[in-house]
């Protein structure tokens, strides 16, 4: 099933990133000096590799890159700071802190991410320490928000199935905490902790990761059926809660999913995770740790774009992995249990939880929280946070839930929602409500095309087609990314666009509505006119020929626009 | 106009020449200057005849006269004039000692036979850097009595400053107090000093005997002893600027900056213009077109009326005269006193007569001719009579930001746009706005090179160099480092730079980064004043590094300061003294003496404005 040259080449020389990690003394590198260098707002490439582990990437404002180069100025270097919270759950105080530092140090916006984290953009080097301190003062962290470690653990955000949700969320936190890096470098660099003597050996420093950490990032998500907002099959390690009458029985385990690929390299591909069995809740932490250590030991450290866990599994086979895992665990997984997913999008507006609290899901276009002259979203949320006694939950679709609103507070919050005209998405098309775009230009260094800044205008034009076809209220999952690394999980959408060049995208069709199936390339490297010309007849035909409850992705396969993709290995076939 | 008293000619010759000279074109004048110079050096017979004539005409003393010419110069003008005068005196057979004041040993003053002083005034009435020690000596109790010693002073200055030519006046007065006798009256020169300086020189030369065939060619460089040769008809100078092509004109400040700093690249092509790092470039700007239009309208004139240019016989349209040939953005007391006479009834004269000096100063400050035009009634005053009283458009000097070794046949400048509001109207810095708004690549601009011998890299490339240049003061250091890079110099270099914001105002950022990486620049410290709550300036960074700075100085480093005088240069000097005290354990006086010694050794040089 896999080509030989994909096999993890443990004998091949390690990539230079591995060297950087090895030499870094547990993520210290020369960051301390580099941050103090006043001649440049940048940090060195080596230090930037390490910076990711601390939750930040160096970027630059690409809109002014050429202009500044002419002006003999270095690029407008700035940092993206990612703040993580397992399951995307934060308190009103934490929200207010994010709101404050976004205005004080960043570009006056907060970006909610597809992994239920916050991103700040435009933080300059000299403010990094202050930002990270203020984040930590409110008991949030940036550590391991990026880098070759376990990332923010995702969890079904909507607490309307209150009892189950609460238990699942607790397990998400436990797993997250268990896989936190142990290095004190973070505390030394940012939180003024005194430098510890680095005489201890690797095992003591990082009992799980060791001195070179993982070969690549590692992602864990937990879904609570029937909702699959976390896109559990896109995760390296996914857990599907099995519950009965409000009681959590355990989890189905799925492994080896992942979105990223490289254009023009068919050895790289998105993959869906495969279910390997069922475990009890109390077995979760152990299983996660052992899975991570297998990837640590067998993942490819020579070729970074072949280093994700999905390739480790595909190269060696699922059976090999299950054997290795059960050996390390010392126990066997049970047979997977039955469950059903019916969507991966968010449910907007008010829902009442079984704990009698109310939860309001707010539509936030592309996850960007900011004030615009005619829509004071950031201010509105600030005012809500000031009086809210419940919590906020970042959804995997980049929306926000005002959670656990008591019946007494509901009126007041409703009033604020009305005052600021905050949207539950009812006024926009169902397509837009199910849309996601990554950040891309101007800050992301990887972007080849626009995404967040372009998606809304493309949707404007698609909505005209939908209106003609009478599909305005039909839910279709549509996603866009500026590069093939897959931050908006485009390979699982019914319609998706992956940027190739400015104004040019690959168009993919046929993903599963509940995030259960990869899509397939339909047209390559096309611009807006062609995008609209391609989609118009398909949508019109879908409107006329769909069978009852048939989703658009399923229709695209039945109507033979694309072939069904069962595994990432067929993605390019 | 030539007169018997300011020239070596007889009355009949003067009359003939005065008939002829105004009819000559610029080209003819230059040709004639060169012709005469060549004629003079070629024909021994003629020369001999001339000498004979001189001998007859004057009762010149037989023994060569000893003249000491001392200059105090900041931008090089005094130095240049001193060299010119010395050359002419030598041509007359005088024995001349030419020296910068800082290099002159005060204890030899008593032995000086004739003392000639050429000195500029800097900032708020201050002597130039290389005149300070001599100035202080002469005004101290240690100054010797100079009973009967003949002296004269040429003072350079700018009438738009309150203490116009103060340093020259002080020298003049002090030398008289010490018993000196003026061999020629002091002359105070404004920014367009050429003519007044020539007149003064003619007087000096006349004192020392019949002037020779130097012919006092007013503008021709061919008569200058430093001229290359008579055949060279295209030597460009302050009075004969070169029209340089604009190659590049871009804003160095990034988006979001409240400042605009132009990086201007000009082609020198085959102009023959040469410069050294540290020299300046003079630019003749044009006034802002809107200001010119508004002035003409406010005065009720017609823009196409012909007027005679000030201190000239040439005619131009009023618009062109006000745009390119006259200064209209600065009001000086002498100017408004003169124009007041044109309209005695409009109240200006009465106001001037009845007002305190300080009130007049307060009015002049920040106002221009348009204000004057709007504040008083000038009905009936002709453009021609008014324009003839104006100052000639003075050139603006900018420290050159490039090394000829890095950019052969080019010269680069760093020019910050000056724009501010005063008295209810936006005011534009004449030259910076001209550069910013009117100089597209492909256009030309009149320029000349102004030597600055007081701001030069150490001759030894191994000597460490400390450069302090915030804002546009960093310009010459781009030239310094370019030069050292091309020379492969091995001496250490340290640059202190500052501005408002790191992200938008870090002039030439990537070039310093490259030089740091390649080792041409050894260290760099920066201070961005508006990025932090507490404002940080270069002097703070210097204090933070005081130990290393002192070490460099002790190792023989030369220290250069360029930029704003009032705010920056004083603070930097204070920091240097503080470092000498703190790290060298010196007292106040010793620290000051240390710095003076560095100055004398040319290890502390400033180009401040």
TrEMBL record, chain A:
Keyword Iron-sulfur in record: yes
Compositional bias ranges of the Polar residues kind: 1-13
InterPro entries in UniProt: CysI (IPR011786), NiRdtase/SiRdtase_haem-b_fer (IPR005117), Nit/Sulf_reduc_fer-like_dom_sf (IPR036136), NO2/SO3_Rdtase_4Fe4S_dom (IPR006067), NO2/SO3_Rdtase_4Fe4S_prot (IPR045169), NO2/SO3_Rdtase_4Fe4S_sf (IPR045854), NO2/SO3_Rdtase_FeS/sirohaem_BS (IPR006066)
Nitrite/Sulfite reductase ferredoxin-like domain residues: 75-136, 357-418
Biological process annotations from GO: cysteine biosynthetic process; hydrogen sulfide biosynthetic process; sulfate assimilation
Organism name: Paenibacillus sacheonensis
Catalytic activity: hydrogen sulfide + 3 NADP(+) + 3 H2O = sulfite + 3 NADPH + 4 H(+)
UniProt domain Nitrite/sulphite reductase 4Fe-4S: residue ranges: 171-333
Gene transcribed to yield this protein: cysI
Cofactor(s) needed for function: [4Fe-4S] cluster; siroheme
GO molecular function: 4 iron, 4 sulfur cluster binding; heme binding; metal ion binding; NADP binding; sulfite reductase (ferredoxin) activity; sulfite reductase (NADPH) activity
Residues at which [4Fe-4S] cluster binds: 438, 444, 483, 487
Record-listed E.C. numbers: 1.8.1.2
GO terms for cellular component: sulfite reductase complex (NADPH)
Subunit relationships: Alpha(8)-beta(8). The alpha component is a flavoprotein, the beta component is a hemoprotein.
Protein name: Sulfite reductase [NADPH] hemoprotein beta-component
Associated pathway: Sulfur metabolism; hydrogen sulfide biosynthesis; hydrogen sulfide from sulfite (NADPH route): step 1/1
Record PANTHER family: SULFITE REDUCTASE [NADPH] SUBUNIT BETA, SULFITE REDUCTASE [NADPH] SUBUNIT BETA-RELATED
From TrEMBL, chain B:
Positions with a binding annotation for FMN: 120-123, 156-165
Protein name, as recorded: assimilatory sulfite reductase (NADPH)
EC number: 1.8.1.2
PANTHER family linked: NADPH OXIDOREDUCTASE A, NITRIC OXIDE SYNTHASE-RELATED
Reactions listed under catalytic activity: hydrogen sulfide + 3 NADP(+) + 3 H2O = sulfite + 3 NADPH + 4 H(+)
Binding residues annotated for FAD, in chain numbering: 329, 396-399, 420, 429-432, 609
Domain Flavodoxin-like: from-to ranges: 67-205
Example GO molecular function: sulfite reductase (NADPH) activity
Residues annotated as binding NADP(+): 529-530, 535-539, 571
InterPro entries per UniProt: CysJ, CysJ-like_FAD-binding, FAD-bd_FR_type, Flavdoxin-like, Flavodoxin/NO_synth, Flavoprot_Pyr_Nucl_cyt_Rdtase, Flavoprotein-like_sf, FNR_nucleotide-bd
Keyword tags: Amino-acid biosynthesis, Cysteine biosynthesis, Electron transport, FAD, Flavoprotein, FMN, NADP, Oxidoreductase, Transport
Xref: Pfam families: FAD_binding_1, Flavodoxin_1, NAD_binding_1
Gene3D superfamilies cross-referenced by the UniProt entry: 3.40.50.360, NADPH-cytochrome p450 Reductase, Chain A, domain 3 (1.20.990.10), Nucleotide-binding domain of ferredoxin-NADP reductase (FNR) module (3.40.50.80), Translation factors (2.40.30.10)
GO terms for cellular component: cytosol
Annotated coiled-coil segments of the chain: none
Cofactor note: Binds 1 FAD per subunit. Binds 1 FMN per subunit.
Biological processes per GO annotation: cysteine biosynthetic process
Residue ranges annotated for the FAD-binding FR-type domain, each copy included: 239-458
Co-factor requirement: FAD; FMN
């Amino acid at each position: 099933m896999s080509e030989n040259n994909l096999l993890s080449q443990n004998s091949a020389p390690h990539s230079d990133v591995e060297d950087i990690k090895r030499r870094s003394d547990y993520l210290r590198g020369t960051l301390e000096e580099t941050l103090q260098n006043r001649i440049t707002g940048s940090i060195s490439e080596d230090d930037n590799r390490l910076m990711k582990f601390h939750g930040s990437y160096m970027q630059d404002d690409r809109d002014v890159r050429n202009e500044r180069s002419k002006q003999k100025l270095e690029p407008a270097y700035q940092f993206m700071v990612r703040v993580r919270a397992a399951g995307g759950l934060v308190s009103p105080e934490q929200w207010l802190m994010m709101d404050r530092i976004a205005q004080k140090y960043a570009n006056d916006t907060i970006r909610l991410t597809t992994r239920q984290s916050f991103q700040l953009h435009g933080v300059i080097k000299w403010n990094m320490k202050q930002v990270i301190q203020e984040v930590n003062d409110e008991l949030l962290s940036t550590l391991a928000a990026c880098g070759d470690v376990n990332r923010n653990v995702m969890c079904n955000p909507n607490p309307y199935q209150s009892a189950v949700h609460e238990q699942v969320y607790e397990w998400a936190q436990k797993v997250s905490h268990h896989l936190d890096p142990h290095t004190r470098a973070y505390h030394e660099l940012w939180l003024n902790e005194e430098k510890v003597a680095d005489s201890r050996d690797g095992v003591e420093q990082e009992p799980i990761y060791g001195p070179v950490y993982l070969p690549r990032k590692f992602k864990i998500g937990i879904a609570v059926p029937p909702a699959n907002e976390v896109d559990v099959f896109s995760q390296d390690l996914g857990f599907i809660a099995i519950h009965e009458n409000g009681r959590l029985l355990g989890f189905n385990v799925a492994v080896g999913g992942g979105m990223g690929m490289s254009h023009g390299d068919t050895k790289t591909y998105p993959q869906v995770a495969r279910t390997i069995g069922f475990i009890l809740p109390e077995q979760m932490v152990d299983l996660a740790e052992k899975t991570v250590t297998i990837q640590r030991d067998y993942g490819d450290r020579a070729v970074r774009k072949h280093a994700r866990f999905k390739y480790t599994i595909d190269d060696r086979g699922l059976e090999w992995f299950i054997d290795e895992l059960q050996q390390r665990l010392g126990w066997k997984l049970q047979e997977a249990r039955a469950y059903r997913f019916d969507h991966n999008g968010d449910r907007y507006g008010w829902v009442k939880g079984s704990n009698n609290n109310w939860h309001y899901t707010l539509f936030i276009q592309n996850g960007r929280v900011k004030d615009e002259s005619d829509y004071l979203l950031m201010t509105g949320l600030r005012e809500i946070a000031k009086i809210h006694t419940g919590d906020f939950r970042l959804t995997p679709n980049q929306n926000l839930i005002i959670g656990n609103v008591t019946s007494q507070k509901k009126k007041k919050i409703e009033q604020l929602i009305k005052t600021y005209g905050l949207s539950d998405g009812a006024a926009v098309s169902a397509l837009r409500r199910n849309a996601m775009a990554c950040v891309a230009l101007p800050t992301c260094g990887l972007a080849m095309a626009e995404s967040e800044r372009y998606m809304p205008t493309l949707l404007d034009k698609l909505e005209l087609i939908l209106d003609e076809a009478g599909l305005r209220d039909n839910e279709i999952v549509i996603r866009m990314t500026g590069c093939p690394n897959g931050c908006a999980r485009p390979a699982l959408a019914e319609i998706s666009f992956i940027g190739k060049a400015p104004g040019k995208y690959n168009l993919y069709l046929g993903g599963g509505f509940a995030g259960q199936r990869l899509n397939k390339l339909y047209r390559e490297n096309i611009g807006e006119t062609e995008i609209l010309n391609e989609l118009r007849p398909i949508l019109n035909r879908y409107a006329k020929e769909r069978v009852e409850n048939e989703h658009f992705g399923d229709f695209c396969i039945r109507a033979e626009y694309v072939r069904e993709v069962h595994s990432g290995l067929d993605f390019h076939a | 106009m030539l007169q018997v008293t300011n020239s070596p000619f007889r009355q009949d010759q003067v009359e003939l020449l005065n008939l002829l000279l105004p009819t000559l074109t610029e080209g003819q004048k230059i040709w004639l200057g060169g012709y005469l110079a060549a004629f003079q050096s070629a024909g021994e017979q003629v020369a001999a005849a001339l000498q004979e004539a001189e001998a007859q005409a004057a009762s010149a003393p037989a023994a060569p006269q000893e003249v000491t010419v001392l200059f105090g110069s900041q931008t090089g003008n005094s130095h240049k004039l001193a060299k010119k005068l010395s050359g002419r005196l030598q041509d007359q057979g005088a024995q001349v000692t030419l020296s910068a004041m800082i290099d002159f040993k005060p204890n030899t003053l008593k032995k000086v036979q004739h003392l000639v002083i050429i000195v500029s005034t800097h900032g708020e009435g201050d002597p130039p850097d290389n005149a300070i020690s001599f100035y202080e000596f002469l005004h101290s109790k240690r100054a010797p009595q100079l009973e009967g010693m003949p002296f004269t002073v040429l003072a350079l200055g700018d009438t738009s400053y309150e203490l116009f030519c103060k340093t020259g006046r002080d020298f003049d007065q002090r030398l008289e107090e010490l018993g000196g006798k003026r061999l020629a009256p002091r002359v105070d020169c404004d920014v367009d000093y050429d003519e007044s300086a020539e007149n003064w020189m003619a007087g000096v030369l006349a004192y020392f005997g019949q002037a020779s065939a130097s012919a006092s060619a007013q503008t021709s460089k061919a008569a200058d002893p430093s001229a290359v040769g008579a055949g060279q008809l295209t030597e460009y100078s302050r009075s004969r600027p070169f029209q340089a092509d604009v190659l590049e004109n871009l804003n160095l400040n990034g988006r979001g900056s409240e400042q605009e700093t132009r990086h201007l690249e000009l082609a020198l092509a085959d102009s023959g213009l040469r410069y050294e790092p540290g020299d300046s470039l003079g630019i003749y700007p044009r006034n802002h077109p809107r200001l010119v239009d508004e002035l003409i309208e406010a005065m009720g004139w017609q823009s196409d009326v012909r007027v005679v240019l000030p201190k000239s016989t040439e005619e131009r349209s009023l618009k062109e005269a006000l745009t390119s040939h006259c200064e209209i953005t600065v009001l000086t007391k002498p100017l408004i006193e003169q124009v007041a006479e044109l309209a005695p009834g409009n109240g200006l004269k009465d106001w001037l007569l009845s007002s305190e000096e300080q009130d007049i100063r307060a009015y002049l400050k920040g106002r221009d001719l348009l204000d004057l035009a709007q504040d008083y009634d000038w009905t009936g005053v002709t453009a021609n009579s008014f324009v003839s009283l104006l100052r000639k458009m003075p050139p603006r000097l900018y420290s050159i930001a490039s090394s000829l070794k890095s950019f052969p046949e080019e010269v680069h400048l760093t020019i910050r746009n000056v724009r501010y509001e005063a008295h209810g109207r936006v005011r534009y810095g004449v030259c910076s706005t001209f550069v910013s708004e009117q100089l597209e690549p492909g256009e030309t601009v009149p320029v000349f090179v102004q030597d600055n011998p007081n701001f030069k890299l150490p001759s030894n490339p191994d000597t460490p160099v400390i450069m302090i240049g915030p804002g546009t003061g960093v310009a010459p250091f781009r030239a310094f480092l370019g030069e050292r890079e091309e020379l492969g110099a091995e001496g250490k270099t340290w640059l202190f730079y500052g501005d408002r914001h790191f992200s938008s105002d870090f002039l030439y950022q990537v070039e310093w980064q490259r030089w740091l990486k390649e080792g041409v620049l050894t260290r760099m410290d920066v201070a961005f004043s508006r990025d932090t709550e507490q404002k940080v300036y270069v002097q703070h960074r210097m204090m933070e590094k005081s130990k290393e700075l002192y070490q460099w100085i002790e190792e023989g480093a030369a220290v250069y300061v360029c930029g704003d005088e009032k705010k920056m240069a004083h603070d930097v000097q204070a920091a240097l003294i503080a470092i000498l005290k703190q790290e060298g354990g010196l007292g106040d006086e010793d620290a000051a003496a240390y710095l003076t010694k560095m100055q004398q050794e040319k290890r502390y040089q400033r180009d401040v404005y």
